[in-house]
């Protein structure tokens, strides 16, 4: 015996009052972030939303670099998203790092390549991962630090991109140790010169204090 046809009317359908705003915010987030795998990114988005965690959402749409012919995976915008999600914990488990990386649809092979640059255990210091991510974006040590400053700064976009000297010193020293070709005395001399320049700037290092496009280290 066939089932009777179900009838619906406006009075029978109950739409949760918060649903329209949730879907609106989700759609805007997807447009800004432009995930290559919408379903995978959506799983991370709603998982974070349900837990009250920082969402895997870019601040703005990133335009592809004119010279970029293929998708290179990690971008400054995506690395900034990871920083918002993982930096509050200081140290994160490898499992959590891999999960957040996957939710942003980033290549697993790229994460593995970064992790091979140092000897990490099952718990990693986030700032070291950030530094390695910046090194993947930058063509030199100083351009890597430029990316780090732009990600970490609280200055408005297009501003001096200042960060605390202690943070700058940690990132520079760590990346120099990973590079392995910069003598300790050069590292110390460089940081000393930077510190002298920022002594009257509330201890903040900006792009103008160390970076010019033609300067390499």
From TrEMBL:
It comes from Crocodylus porosus. Belongs to the ropporin family. One of its GO terms (biological process) is sperm capacitation. It comes from the Eukaryota. Gene3D superfamilies: cAMP-dependent protein kinase regulatory subunit, dimerization-anchoring domain. This is Ropporin-1-like protein. GO terms for molecular function: identical protein binding. One of its GO terms (cellular component) is radial spoke. It is found in: Cell projection, Cilium, Flagellum. Signal peptide: none annotated. Keywords: Cell projection, Cilium, Flagellum. Coiled coil: none annotated. The keyword Chaperone does not apply.
